[in-house]
Amino acid sequence: MAMFSKHLRLSSSFLQRLRLHVTAGNPGRHKLSSRSFTTIEGHRPSIVHKRSLDILHDPWFNKGTAFSMTERDRLDLRGLLPPNVMSTDLQIERFMVDLKRLEVQARDGPSDPNALAKWRILNRLHDRNEVMYYKVLIANIEEYAPVVYTPTVGLVCQNYSGLFRRPRGMYFSAEDRGEMMSMVYNWPADQVDMIVVTDGSRILGLGDLGVQGIGIAIGKLDLYVAAAGINPQRVLPVMIDVGTNNEKLLKDSLYLGLQQHRLDGDDYLSVVDEFMEAVFIRWPNVIVQFEDFQSKWAFKLLQRYRNTYRMFNDDVQGTAGVAIAGLLGAVRAQGRSMIDFPKQKIVVAGAGSAGIGVLNAARKTMARMLGNNEEAFKSAKSQFWVVDAQGLITEGRENIDPDALPFARNLKEMGRQGLREGASLVEVVKQVKPDVLLGLSAVGGLFSKEVLEALKGSTSTRPAIFAMSNPTKNAECTPEEAFSILGENIIFASGSPFSDVDLGNGNVGHCNQGNNMYLFPGIGLGTLLSGARIVSDGMLQAAAECLAAYMSEEEVLQGIIFPSISRIRDITKEVAAAVIKEAVEEDLAEGYHGMDPRELRKLNQDEIAEYVKNHMWSPEYPTLVYKKD
Ligand SMILES: NC(=O)C1=CN([C@@H]2O[C@H](COP(=O)(O)OP(=O)(O)OC[C@H]3O[C@@H](n4cnc5c(N)ncnc54)[C@H](O)[C@@H]3O)[C@@H](O)[C@H]2O)C=CC1
Ligand SMILES: CC(=O)C(=O)O
Ligand SMILES: [Mg+2]
């Protein structure tokens, strides 16, 4: 009955148009124009001879986020779009909101008011012509890394629901449970070398951005291509959308992700487990980099997968390696030998995935230098004071986070130092007089004037300040603040890029960028080319030591402890070679394509470097020829 009346309605509108045509058109010929039929044709399904990404890249067939779930399933689109199916009205509203936003100048700190506009232009080039995009990026890496990576990528993620145009990467959502094994085959590439995956729960220092966090996976993979020469056809950004606890996004009708609170416990784990199983079944040699998972899951997932899959956590392990290299650089910059590292007093602000990762690695490095035994490991603990949102962490802390427990200070000992449970950062700095103040707190301005004034009491000949939180506005202090308060005899590093500081006396205060971008591309490339079964602690240590040794004595004494980003392709090549060497020594290497493990074992240092260089993709147009299937 319902079908019958629908048919009647159609028929009456058809007749009405027919009448209109007859009266308004050529009265003599009474012929229907093809235009009149188009309206009716629109109700019939269109036949499409394409599937998967080819449909999304075809402006005639593409409906973007408006593809229904049935269409997504039938056309192999599942996972290629954010999970929220939108009406056309909402799609248009999302576009208009973004268009109007252009009128309000986008800002990410004072450094570049046009950053978002630059990102849009680069992103459009990325969609049109990958070779040209990477040529532009590599040739201008100093200028555009801050656009495709931190800090602008943070702003991009915050605005991703508006900026989203052509999808890039895959989305696995809580709604896809039971489907992932088939969904992975919707991705068109038979070879994937690198996946960067996030669940969007802690994007840089910006908190839970839900599905919009895909931007960070895309930005990290841009560096994999630009710095490590991973072939862009073989990278896959992934978003695991288990919901969001960001109330603003939950209420936003234009949000692209699942509008539900995050899954937790076994429900959460079952989604990530299914994703890991699916990608390793389709691409057994892939490497999965976990990125920007909240601390609560970062450590657990790392422990869960690291001995089974080729994976690592960039925030925990990549950051640790970069910090170790920086801390050793700071010792050398004092004119001392690296072996003096275990004497450094280090105050760390922030005990999340990054802070705890750094603390564990720094303690192990000290222990190795002190004799590599249990006693050395125990005594190294006394070099660290950890301050989180509740102040100094001691054994007196109630409900202490188990990951922070190994660094909790003894209450009596703290009493003797004039400190107590929960002491403020400024009190800790005043009492400890540290050599190093390292921030991974995500709190912009945490190293206030008061804190920096307190650091003047440091017993170091050249105190080091690492304001490592991202993006720019989350840096614990700026280089200007540090140099103006502490003078020029310091070492300064920040997570996001800042310009060097003109000290006004003809000298320059050098601002280093202490960011895991100096390690993760080389760790990934080295793992890939060695065919290592897992990413071992030894391989990560080798990467960190390589970065630490990269800077010359002269540079380090000038306060330059990290290379300029213009050298990122070169340092990545060296890091990858160090990782391969270690993988071979640990007997983890299973070879890569034509290079079998026996051959790999025979290579000397120079030959490994050559092997790496020869496998790095460079953006050049290939000659294309047509071949019939
Ligand atoms: N430069 C780099 O390469 C990297 C930088 N990061 C940055 O580190 C920051 C933290 O990342 P996660 O550890 O994953 O975050 P998280 O959210 O897990 O940890 C933040 C920690 O800071 C503490 N904190 C908050 N307020 C504080 C305060 N007022 N004083 C002292 N501590 C305070 C919290 O208690 C928590 O322990 C982010 O901004 C991130 O962008 C992370 C990885 C790499
Ligand atoms: C750099 C980075 O991985 C972060 O800020 O989370
Ligand atoms: Mg990160």
Automatic annotation (TrEMBL):
UniProt remark on cofactor binding: Divalent metal cations. Prefers magnesium or manganese.
Main location per the UniProt record: mitochondrion
Keyword Metal-binding tagged: yes
GO cellular component terms given for this protein: mitochondrion
Catalysed reaction, written as an equation: (S)-malate + NAD(+) = pyruvate + CO2 + NADH
A GO biological process held by the record: malate metabolic process
NCBIfam families according to UniProt: PRK13529.1
Protein name (record): Malic enzyme
